[in-house]
Amino acid sequence: MRLGELERAVMDVLWDRGTPLTVREVAEALQNRELAYTTVMTVLDRLAGKEMVERERAGRAWSYRPAASREAYIAQLMLDALDLSSSRDAALVRFARSVSGTEAEVLRAALAEEAADGRDGKD
Amino acid sequence: MVYAVHFAVAVLACYLIAQVLTRSTWTYNSPRVAIVCWQAVGLALGLAAIGLPLAAGLAPYDDGVGNALMRLASGELAPGFGLAHAALVMAGFGVAGVLTGTTVICGLRALSAQRRHRDLLTLVARDDPAAPGALVLDHPSAAAYCLPGVRPTVVVSAGTLSLLDRAELAAVLSHERAHADERHDLVLLPFTALCRALPWAAWVRAARDTVALLVEMRADDRARRQHMDGALAAALLRFASAPSRVTPAGALGIAESRSTRPLPITLSIADSHLDARVRRLLTTGRPARVRGAIALGVTATLVVTTVALFVG
């Protein structure tokens, strides 16, 4: 299986469960794929390096949770796609841009809300 | 001094040609030729902007910029070469540094934004038999784009899938693949960088927007070759008139209070571009061979002359 697919499978587990999980718990959830514990750990490490998951101590092990919801990531991609992101680097080539002011606000609100949720969750 | 004057003339020529190219509409019928012309103008402008202060500073040598620099580097000081001259030479190197620096920084930023985008796509985008060869993002807004790179990726949103019929979608996908094949991101990069380096120069921004439009037209042409007439124009029109489809959970209050008023329509550059693209797709324009050839000749001469000014 390719690394990207693994990352996606791991994120899906984290998103679907909705609670912070340890490496072992993620590996158990992916039992049908017969992944080694170390493989899952490597993937979670990579995801943490890309700031896509956050980790915290849970007793002797680390537990992991998504840094943002699936919807927030899609909103981020759509902001890029519609040329509304703050960076505005020449990263994408678009077919056409059709976006109302409201749409932009809604997408940004989705992200802002997500950020606020993230902060609440940490407290 | 005569070399500095030549460079000044070259800068002026670049500016004037850019003005003409920005206002021309023959370019709509030959976008590829026009894109090449724009690249030439951009290159000549960069070289001339570097050469002008260099040549002014090296005037006491009464020699070509290249030779004079060589003589200066070997320690030969021409009579009359003073502090002001040295400062001008430094300014020339400064311009060169800023131009290459901003281009490199722009390129690196785009690369890192692309990497982040690709990473996120891996996590949340899906394949869909309705859009072969493309990734689909589950979002109700209409978007279609190409993530450029060595392994380019075409992405459409679920909103696009429901907005377009099969033929229209196929045309849009071809359009995006044309962007990827011809590396239009790299075509635009120097102009984006120039906008960064000269944020106050409205004509540079106008040039960038014009090149961006030409790139779209070029991709439209590629897509048009493979698909039914009208499919692409129809897709563009659908995009232009796509209603806001976002129904936010939790932000409904805002959306409702706004939906009672007409949506704010901001006539952006993108909109006027859309109009120009649809118009030309619906009429069959003949390629502007004569004017294209003239423009190619003029801009090529400009580049060759500027390079020769450095060497000679």
From TrEMBL, chain A:
GO terms for biological process: negative regulation of DNA-templated transcription. Keywords: DNA-binding, Transcription, Transcription regulation. One of its GO terms (molecular function) is DNA binding. Belongs to the BlaI transcriptional regulatory family. This is Transcriptional regulator.
Automatic annotation (TrEMBL), chain B:
The chain crosses the membrane at residues 6-26, 33-61, 81-108, 290-311. Residues 117-194 form the Peptidase M48 domain. GO terms for molecular function: metal ion binding; metalloendopeptidase activity. GO terms for biological process: proteolysis. CDD domains: M56_BlaR1_MecR1_like. Its cofactor is Zn(2+). Signal peptide: none annotated. InterPro entries: Beta-lactam_resp_regulator (IPR052173), Peptidase_M48 (IPR001915). Binds 1 zinc ion per subunit. Keywords: Hydrolase, Membrane, Metal-binding, Metalloprotease, Protease, Transmembrane, Transmembrane helix, Zinc. Belongs to the peptidase M48 family. This is Peptidase M48 domain-containing protein.
